[in-house]
Amino acid sequence: MALRLVADFDLRKDVLPWLRAQRVVSEAAGAGGGGTDVLENDYESLRVLNVERNGNIIYTYKGDKGNVFFGLYDRQTRQNEHLYTFEKDLQVVSCSINSERTLLAASLVQNTKEGRRNELQPGSKCLTLLVEIHPVNNVKVLKAVDSYIWVQFLYPYVESHALPENHLLLISEEKYIEQYHIQVTQEDGNRVVIKNSGRLSKDRIAEDFVWAQWDMSEQRLYYIDLKKSRSILKCIQFYADESFNLMFEAPLDISLSDSGFKLVNFGCDCHPDQKKLSKHLTLCVFTNNTGSLCVCYSPKCASLEQITYSVFHIHKGHSKTFTAALGSAGSHVTKGVTFLNLDYYVAVYLPGHFFHLLNIQHPDLICHSLFQTGNNEMIAMLPHSPLQSLSGCLVLDCCSGKLYRALLNQSYLLRFLWNTCLDCEKMAVLHCVLSCGQGPRVLEAQIIQWVSENVSACHSFDLIQEFLIASSYWSVYPETSNVDKLLPYSSVLTWNTVHRFKGYWEKLNSNLEYVKYAKPHLQYNNSVVRREWHNLISEEKTGKRRSMAYVRNILDNAIKVISNLEARNLEPRLMPLLQEEDNHQRLLVGLMVSELQDHLLRHLQGVEKKKIEQMVLDYISKLMDLICRILETTWRKHNLHSWVLHFNRHGSAAEFAVFHIMTRILEATNSLFLPLPPGFHTLHTILGVHCLPLHNLLHYIDSGLLLLTETAVTRLMKDLDNTEKSEKLKFSIIARLPPLIGQKICRLWDHPMSSNIISRNHVTRLLQNYKKQPRNSMIDKSSFRVEFLPLNYFIEILTDTESSNQALYAFEGHDNVDAEFVEEAALKHTTMLLGL
Predict the structure, then answer these.
(1) Where are the alpha helices (DSSP H) in 254-372?
(2) Are 303 and 372 in contact (CB under 8 A)?
(3) On the chain, which terminus has fewer CB atoms closer than 10 Å, C or N?
(4) Is the confidence at residue 40, as pLDDT, over 70?
(5) CB 57 within 8 A of CB 403
(6) Are 75 and 56 in contact (CB under 8 A)?
(7) How far apart (Å, rounded) are the C-alpha atoms in residues 345 and 474?
(8) How far apart (Å, rounded) are the C-alpha atoms in residues 71 and 48?
(9) Which is it for strands 318-325 and 306-313: parallel, antiparallel or unpaired?
(10) Of 255 and 345, more confident
């Protein structure tokens, strides 16, 4: 299935064997008991109470005499520890332990099943205790009230030494939250006791709230209170120095006025009375280290035919509401939807009905989210018991007592990618797989294989474009915050703030500022590169060039990218890429480096210039590396060899397949104006000559799908003979070359046609500034091989012009072409035209 639950803790496997061993030791010591079978029969009473910030798990169970035992499992050492035994038959509501394991807070209620007398204080239903457990010593009653109480110790961010003061949250069913400040001191060596236990100071944190959630990892309290029937979400951040701040207030477009009272992640959410108080209502807040803040909400299910849920992307400034059909009327819904935090994604599912994977980094593109419905494999394999999403990707199954780490299942998603037929699912799964980031080189190789075999299978988007953009984006995304706003993440286009704090709050604030003020063009594109590149190419064609230092700097950038690209390559390439100069592509690479650096330096405040420069090199190298690997995969698949690079042969089906992939890559990169590896156009042209009839070949050239490089045309002139078919091809190619390159190529072809072209170019150059001068009408006929006055007169003019410009043309390298060469070419051409 798409969701992979990796077991991190299991009550039955990690705790039960230890409890059995403890029972055996007690019996051997004569402490009595009913044998190990009693504990097995009492397994149903063993349950998880809480998971603390450091990962320690608190659990409870009932002994054979009804005593309540508290234990702790350390996930780092994989060891169990007995904490405390309460020798009365009560039911545990909530429990928490401080980071030093010296204080235990517990909330207990009367066990009504036994019909016993009230064992608590008279008139009270719930007893909240604070116990010294290092060693077990005094017990202080914090609350004895007729309403439920939940407890939670705060954990400091620095745990290297014991703190003199502990802080405990008490959450009351009467809709208030208090913070107790508990000072401790050491007596008689290591004995830890509460200082001034008779009078503990406390603060009122919140009141009149209807919902609250605890984030154990980040030490944040989220709660909702009602103001004039409006639901206001608030967040309090706690710090190690006992201070706390109200970070934000955000109105939510949901109604909680009749939803009762609901707590999330204050221990295990399985108390029977709490289920009764808020049946089927689901509301939770998810964050991650990129500054995202999502509120997921599903109201009580009022219909048996459909279910509604909303996701508020507060970091993006908008929300989305979804309604999912539940199929036949007989498929009764007994549980609410489950929301799971999967870092860059939120999973929403209802067992047996649907599974929805929402991209929370880019919620504006609904095509980046995956929705599955029906009785398919993905939905059938999802857990049917309710899961509680803790901080990060931790998930607790309270019914089974198992703690999981929820991850996206890469292998399943890859199989799904191969099998799905819908474009929207292909795009969603492609981004989902790339975001996993586990074994990226191997993962990309598998995706490249899929891309190369399905390049024409997508009709609503360009698969190569999407892969190049998405894979390059995810390769640099984890390195720097805010880079997701500055780099493109898809080829498909769209479709009150916090205080100035560091860490998560700084990133969230940046996200909100972007939503408020940013314009679409803040995201990088190659429009400036396109304009500047065309300017440089035009200057080259006209023989004009701006300062050599500017051009040299651009080409140096390209050298850095290619060196970085070669350093990434772990095995030799079979394809002849990156082996030729191809100055046009190098100019494009260098310009993109320069522009992208400037763009990131403008908008990534506080990031070192060297880090940005390296990020740019990595990003552009990644783009080109992906293109090389797509081609390399196709080349290896069709088992092509180096003899493909010669023109004097016909193309095979394998060559045509590679040519097709290269054409699709060229189309994808052209619209985005992305650079290609030097050597790409040469190889593409060679395969085009092999695979296409002449008229199709020329059409490809004229429409820009084949770009003629000097290397490719030089090889063509040398490889092909002068048969009629080859002459026609050569002439058609030469006629389409830029003048400067065409002149070089013509010198390589010993043929009257090339002589004619060279002569025409020479005459054009000589006479472009020609001014007619008075001239003797008598011509010395003895100096000409043929008596043909128009030609004789014309050659004499050329000779005079050459004489007056001899120094200039010798410097330009035209000394091998002169009036005599032009005369000979003209005579040969005339003879050929007359058929003599």
Answers:
(1) 272-277
(2) no
(3) C
(4) no
(5) yes
(6) yes
(7) 14
(8) 10
(9) antiparallel
(10) 345
